[in-house]
Amino acid sequence: MIMFPEANIPVVCVSLHASMDAEQHLRMGQALGSLRENGTLIIGSGYSFHNLPAYRHPTEESIKASRDFDDWLKETLLQHSHEQALDRFKEWSKAPGGRLSHPKEEHLLPLLVVAAAGGKPRLVFEEASDPWKTHMGHAVSGYVFE
């Protein structure tokens, strides 16, 4: 209601595919991409770091992994072409800190769907340097695709 107080926009909920396969979710995003041209807002909710045991008991290893993966994510989205970014996302679990940042991929896959739908990525928040603003010392960031 805050973004659209008239509530006059269509809403369609899309679930994650049971396979949790990165390429499947990239294809989903590409299929949804044409909706952007019609003014449809595509939102993906997730997290750039989602390791619950590490939140409860942060270690130097988990903090480093979150920062490494966050740096890889920023590089992937902001320094590569759309096509290059999608190729890199296919192998996200091999990225520095990837699997430790996401033991399960359900909180990362929405980003892949939205990224694949297109639009120019822009970093909208980053919490990596100030330990009081991070999540138990772990780096997190958020993006919008315009």
Can you walk through the features of this model?
With 146 residues, the protein is mainly alpha-helical. Helix content is 42%, strand content 9%. It contains 6 helices and 2 strands; from the N terminus they run ααααααββ. It is globular, with a radius of gyration of 16 Å. The relative contact order is 0.21.
Q: SSE order, as H and E?
A: HHHHHHEE
**First-residue to last-residue Cα separation:** 21 Å
Please give the radius of gyration in angstroms.
16 Å
Spatially, the strands of the biggest sheet line up as 1-2
Compute the number of helices.
6
Extended strand count: 2
Tags for this entry?
two-stranded antiparallel sheet, 146 residues, mainly alpha
Write the layout of secondary structure elements.
Layout: H1 22-37, H2 52-56, H3 60-78, H4 82-89, H5 98-101, H6 109-117, E1 121-127, E2 140-145
Briefly summarize what is shown.
The chain is mainly alpha-helical and 146 residues long. The chain has helices at 22-37, 52-56, 60-78, 82-89, 98-101, 109-117, and strands at 121-127, 140-145.
